[in-house]
Amino acid sequence: MKRVARYEEVSHFDLETDVVVVGFGGAGASAALEAQRAGSNVTVLERSSAGGGSTMMSACEMYLGGSGGTALQKDLGFSDSTENFYAYMKACFGDNVDEARLKLYTEQGPEHFDWCESLGVPYKRGFFPGRDVVAMTGDSLQYTGNERSWPFTEHAEPVPRGHLPADADHNGGQVFMSVLLQRVEESGADIRVDARAMSLLQDDIGRVRGVIAKIDNKPFVIKAGQGVILTAGGFIMNEQMTRQHLPRYYPIDNPHGNSGDMGDGILLGVAAGGHAINMGEAFICVAHYPPPELTFGIFVNNRGQRFINEDIYLARMGHYAMEQPDKQLFMLIDNEHFARPAYQESVDIIAVGESIEEVELDAGFPQGVLQTTVAYYNQHAENGEDPLFNKSREWLKPINTPPFALVSYSLDILKPAIFTLGGLDVLPTGEVLTPDREPIPGLFAAGRTVAGIPRTSKGYASGMSVGDATFFGRRAGQQVASSTRN
Length: 486
Ligand SMILES: Cc1cc2nc3c(=O)[nH]c(=O)nc-3n(C[C@H](O)[C@H](O)[C@H](O)COP(=O)(O)OP(=O)(O)OC[C@H]3O[C@@H](n4cnc5c(N)ncnc54)[C@H](O)[C@@H]3O)c2cc1C
Hints:
Layout: E1 4-6, E2 15-22, H1 26-37, E3 42-45, H2 53-57, E4 62-63, H3 71-75, H4 82-93, H5 99-107, H6 109-119, E5 127-128, E6 141-142, E7 162-163, H7 172-187, E8 190-192, E9 195-202, E10 208-215, E11 218-230, H8 239-245, E12 254-255, H9 264-271, E13 276-277, E14 282-285, E15 298-301, H10 314-322, E16 329-334, E17 348-353, H11 356-363, H12 369-381, E18 404-408, H13 411-414, E19 417-420, E20 423-424, E21 431-433, E22 439-445, H14 464-481
Parallel strand pairs: 1-9, 2-3, 2-11, 3-8, 5-6, 11-22, 12-19
Antiparallel strand pairs: 4-7, 6-7, 9-10, 10-11, 13-20, 14-19, 15-16, 16-18, 17-18, 21-22
Helix pairs in contact: 1-7, 1-14, 4-5
Bound molecules: flavin-adenine dinucleotide.
């Protein structure tokens, strides 16, 4: 398929508009609304029969803060400086952060939250202090990542930054997107569904000037006087691309996203000269909690050795699971804290015993390794210490109430949820960059189509994707609307 066609060769346009937005999920709807509000005529193309995308499927938790705190954080008594937020994010993604985009994100979080509320999305002034991926109490503020665990506690003060629509449990995406899609409709934007962008129109000097779409299976040529915004999600549903870029995650039995996550936005952007980066990174989830009491267990690999502080977020556990020999990992838990993980149904109890020695024998570990691991852990847990991995005191207790169980979370049986974190390289304005980091005139992108704020599962926290997609979707919409009409 030709993903770029020459603008000069087009003899007829089916539609002339200012801005074309490709994809009507979180990033696309945010971009369309801001561009339309700024005075541009916007046409939105959505390949499925309705807008929403993966954002609609999500809990729509947004990771926001900085500049003293969002209205929600402040109302609940938390303050959050930009420096603290930035330091935390830097600890999450290290040298792989996009400094310019992260700076903006950590400065303007409160403004973004105000925008979400101004749309009419309800947020409840309630703080959930517990350990869960999504607060099931209806409260709108919670910790969602590794804020309270080592080594992050050495870099930043823990502050809760997960912002959830009120009383929505895991259905926040439906709450948020139904409001946002309605606002876009009310703005007067031209919304086309069953409309897949197939090619970009690029002129002889490299400017992107429109799109060729398939609408109701017929070609439809659109001229975009100000520009095109690619917000078509990631590529977790595209087998050819995942095999090429994410071979170490194979087999991908549980791709996490909507069926439109085919990489169209990335492929269109690359065809026009854009640079795709971070393509080998993905979010991978090992949901070792809730319930929170499972955090009292310890994880060992197939050598019987611990490798992590268990009080971390589930995406960090996913990252470390990938690094263990044969991607095998096991939770050892005693009877006092035994429970079934709420979101990981396929775990397998592979050994039980009245003593650690019995479990070790039953599991087939070399004699003594598990006993040594547990004896060392228990000796220090007794004093509230974890000299190896600094698990927080709150979750440290000797494992000593029989019977004991060893539960396999090995990746072959777990079928972990995975979605992509690579995409187009862009400026904070959404302008798509060439490999030389030169903006391509007329081309913008946001959301999972770009390499965004979250860059690896190792530091990911719930809320970083939707926060990033909607925040930078808005900026792309504002930027294109300020462009000269061609
Ligand atoms: C179950 C689930 C729960 C999640 N929970 C959270 C959470 O709570 N917080 C969080 O931060 N992240 C969460 N995520 C991740 C997050 O939802 C996504 O990363 C994010 O919403 C992506 O937003 P987006 O706008 O880039 O893409 P999307 O919202 O997926 O929108 C992309 C749209 O583009 C359309 N499209 C694709 N190709 C074309 C084309 N060629 N032409 C026209 N249209 C096209 C698609 O059909 C889709 O509607 C979750 C993901 C899942 C699956």
